[in-house]
Amino acid sequence: MARRNILTKEQPALYKKCRPVTEFNPRLHQLLDDMAETLAGENGVGLAAPQVGVLRRAVIVLETNVPEGEEEYLIELINPEIIEATGEQNGAEGCLSVPGEYGLVKRPMHVKVRAQDRNGNTFEVEGDGLTARCFCHEIDHLEGIVFTSKCERMLSEEELEKGEIEQ
Ligand code: ZN
Hints:
The structure is a single chain. A five-stranded antiparallel beta sheet has the order 1-2-3-6-7. It has a three-stranded antiparallel beta sheet with strand order 4-5-8, with helices on one face. Strand 6 (110-116) and strand 7 (122-128) form a beta hairpin. The N and C termini lie far apart (34 Å). It has a single domain (12-162), classed as Peptide Deformylase (Alpha-Beta Complex), CATH 3.90.45.10. The protein has helices at 26-42, 130-142, 157-162, and strands at 46-48, 58-63, 73-86, 89-93, 103-107, 110-116, 122-128, 153-154. It is of the alpha+beta class. Bound molecules: zinc ion. Zinc ion binds next to helix 2.
């Protein structure tokens, strides 16, 4: 495994629509493993392939809603689609490609996603709260959408320090 460089918001590749993954081969597995290592190195909760310069529909999301004492775990989503979205949350959102900046973004509170795993098997997974936000944020990346284009407004350092903006 190797850490990969994360593209920042100035780079045009981040604004391109990604193509479906069609080959579930060792190269894809290497990409996913590298993305996991890159995400862990940044203490992030989600990463999309275009953020490491690969314009394919693959994302990873850290499921943080786990029972006390259990480990958080990564969910790999290949060719993901949101098939159900309910409720609403409005809260601070950030991105490893937009370091140090946060904005207020409205997202559904609960989403159901259909995707394929690294071997091409289709599955469905649900996410609530931060996980739902993260699914939406990462899937947006596959459309070339960075959160700054859909946030109500960016947050000031003061607001962030106060920590009043919670989901
Ligand atoms: Zn992002």
